[in-house]
């Protein structure tokens, strides 16, 4: 049985013909690359990849199949998957289905048998660009014509929940604002016995305040932080009311914007599980998992009430911020994702301690006032 052909065309005119796997059809998105050797299931189901065609630089993908435990959301969010070679017959005791079966079920197009390292070099040289994957007959001119249309900019609204829900716990009460949260974030909070209420991305401050949270966690998510309507105003009020706050990835960028800093689109972003980050206070280096195409502009932090707490070793971009006066901090990387070491999970403990300290401070202030 002959395999179906798929074509990948980049916005710069580069064209690649390979073998189709997964679903059939056509998909347009922003093409990005991930340097992880493993973790493809987490990548496929990470809401931060919504609208993107993901290129895996590691040459063999799918060898351990798809299991029931490693989902970051209820379904895959990528628009297309590009690999050098995919394993048709996976081998792992947890595997329930192959990568091909999984993509077919969710109508996601994959292309294999092409030089993914070459594509990665093109992205690194020219920057992130639009691309199309199709199993239909198409010439380069037709493909480039289709790529003229702008990509959607409402990614967060597409991945965020529509109705809030609550998970009970006997510890701190946390409101998790869903810009496209990963299950790993929820897992870390629940392991610390938090009561978590997950709310949609556009929940206003009064609604959050009425939930009487000990703290608010701003989740990761896809797209440009400046496209998330209403988020900055809500975060400003959270900070003004001195509710402890922790931002992750997109939440970190929104935290920066709410404090007067600026964000910018990176040339090709950080996506992988081996990015070294330096914590400035301790000079410790952490190997981190990252997935972002925007960063906080370094110079913009100088004139706002934030201090830089972490930086990326590879390019010097900002990886962590803390408010100078309010109980609030953020990181650009993913402390809930473990690329091997678990050392970045201390940030969740830091958030728990911040909530306890603030609760105690307010209690002492109330007692003093009553006297």
Automatic annotation (TrEMBL):
Ranges of residues in domain Carbamoyl-phosphate synthase small subunit N-terminal: 4-134
A Pfam family recorded for this sequence: CPSase_sm_chain
Region: CPSase, residue numbers: 1-173
PROSITE patterns per the UniProt record, alphabetical: GATASE_TYPE_1
Catalytic activity: hydrogencarbonate + L-glutamine + 2 ATP + H2O = carbamoyl phosphate + L-glutamate + 2 ADP + phosphate + 2 H(+); L-glutamine + H2O = L-glutamate + NH4(+)
Gene Ontology biological process terms, A to Z: 'de novo' pyrimidine nucleobase biosynthetic process; 'de novo' UMP biosynthetic process; glutamine metabolic process; L-arginine biosynthetic process
Residues at the catalytic site: 249 (nucleophile), 334, 336
CDD domains for the chain: GATase1_CPSase
Keywords from the named record: Amino-acid biosynthesis, Arginine biosynthesis, ATP-binding, Glutamine amidotransferase, Ligase, Nucleotide-binding, Pyrimidine biosynthesis
Binding site for L-glutamine: 48, 221, 223, 250, 253, 291, 293-294
Ranges in coiled-coil conformation: none
Gene3D superfamilies linked to this entry: 3.40.50.880, Carbamoyl-phosphate synthase small subunit, N-terminal domain (3.50.30.20)
PANTHER family documented for this protein: CARBAMOYL-PHOSPHATE SYNTHASE SMALL CHAIN, MULTIFUNCTIONAL TRYPTOPHAN BIOSYNTHESIS PROTEIN-RELATED
Protein family per UniProt: Belongs to the CarA family.
Alphabetical list of NCBIfam families matching this protein: CPSaseIIsmall (TIGR01368), PRK12838.1 (NF009475)
Subunit relationships: Composed of two chains; the small (or glutamine) chain promotes the hydrolysis of glutamine to ammonia, which is used by the large (or ammonia) chain to synthesize carbamoyl phosphate. Tetramer of heterodimers (alpha,beta)4.
Classification via HAMAP family: CPSase_S_chain
UniProt name for this protein: Carbamoyl phosphate synthase small chain
Organism: Vulcanibacillus modesticaldus
Gene this protein is translated from: carA
